[in-house]
Specification:
Length: 376
């Protein structure tokens, strides 16, 4: 009897172990991303790709049509609502468009669109409670706010901020150019980069108000004339704001304390220039490494690492295909996917988690003019 029970127990253990192994073996390591693009015809739009973190292969899953130049695209936390800007120009500006995503059918249904009252919208963000969508209009030099409901339906604009002024670079800074919106991770403020006026705006918000932004309480921080702040990234604590200066190919590090920004470091990404094309900026999950892309004649990713005093130093410059407009660190932080607008490619780079250094791989996929990646 004891032998039978022992054998039976052993058999149960084998079955459970095999099932556990099978579950582990079958566990998906795929990561999906939405790809914002510039479109040349009606057969192009928002692309959905799958990245296999094990094989490092990229596969195109689908393309969302009926949207023009969806250069920046985001989702709500539950991945059921997709919002994209349509980076176009018209009498009423560009557009912001929402979609409902059916997870079972894996289909996208367009909900509605609104004009943004500013040409060439190039940045978009959900508010923390996902009750509002904020849009920055590059050529319009303004900021638009739209209420959005739980089903993804946008409503008429509730707030609009028009910036004024210009700066030192006559060709690129002839007027305001809003280029990025970044929500503070803990406080009710947003940071806005204005490339045209060399300013970073800190604007308080109230999610329970009808207008959302509290324009009258905004605080403007001027940066070096002709630098052109483009992309913004907060650290997790919200004590540091990192900024790419597009026109001078630099990264600025700002301390955030008592509601004010103080620049504490500037890092050069290339040789000195006043007509640069620095673009995206990403921070690793551990906060130890910064990554910046530079387009134009350079076409490279620059890797920066913190020292014991919290200062960053450049540790690597690695070449990419043409015009690395945007890139993203994968979920496991072991790879970087680089969208190169000029080469119509998304390329995979290996990343050493300990050293932060990158290595090019041969894995890539052809996508028409990819300019943004967002986890999906």
């Amino acid at each position: 009897m004891k032998k039978s029970l022992t054998f039976f127990s052993f058999f149960i253990f084998i079955v459970i172990s095999n099932n556990s192994f099978a579950q582990k073996k079958s566990k998906s390591i795929d990561e999906n991303y939405l790809i914002g693009t510039y479109t040349d015809n009606a057969s192009q739009g928002i692309n959905v790709i799958k990245f296999d973190a094990k094989s490092k292969q990229i596969k195109l899953l689908s393309t969302v049509l009926g949207v023009e130049n969806p250069s920046f695209v985001i989702t709500n936390n539950s991945k059921t609502i997709v919002v994209a800007v349509e980076e176009i120009a018209s009498e009423n500006g560009g557009k912001v468009t929402s979609f409902y995503y059916n997870k079972k059918a894996k289909t996208f249904i367009k909900i509605n669109s609104f004009n943004t009252k500013g040409n060439h919208p190039c940045t978009v963000a959900f508010s923390p409670k996902e009750d509002f969508v904020l849009v920055g209009n590059y050529s319009g030099g303004n900021l638009s706010v739209f209420p959005i409901d739980a089903k993804g339906k946008l409503s008429e604009m509730s707030n609009f901020i028009q910036y004024e002024g210009k700066s030192a670079n006559v060709e690129r800074q002839e007027k305001p150019h809003v280029h990025c919106i970044a929500f503070h991770p803990k406080e009710n403020i947003i940071a806005v980069a204005d490339l045209g006026t060399d300013a970073i705006e800190l604007i308080p918000f109230d999610e329970n108000s009808k207008t959302f932004l509290q324009n009258e309480k905004a605080l403007s921080t001027k940066v070096a004339a002709g630098s052109g702040p483009r992309h913004l990234v907060w650290n997790k604590a919200g004590t540091i704001l990192y900024v790419t200066f597009e026109l001078t190919n630099e990264v600025g590090v700002f301390q955030h304390k008592d509601g004010k920004l103080t620049q504490i470091q500037t890092l050069a990404l290339t040789n000195p220039t006043k007509s640069g094309s620095a673009a995206e900026l990403r921070l690793s999950n551990d906060g130890q490494f910064l990554y910046a892309s530079v387009r134009g004649n350079d076409n490279q990713i620059v890797v920066m690492k913190t020292d014991n005093l919290g200062k960053f130093n450049v540790i690597q410059t690695i070449k990419t295909a043409s015009m690395p407009r945007n890139f993203i660190l994968t979920k496991n932080q072991k790879n970087i996917l680089v969208a190169t607008q000029g080469s119509n490619l998304i390329s995979v780079f290996d990343r050493n988690e300990k050293t932060g250094l990158l290595t090019a791989t041969s894995n890539e996929i052809t996508i028409n003019k990819p300019v943004y990646l967002f986890p999906f």
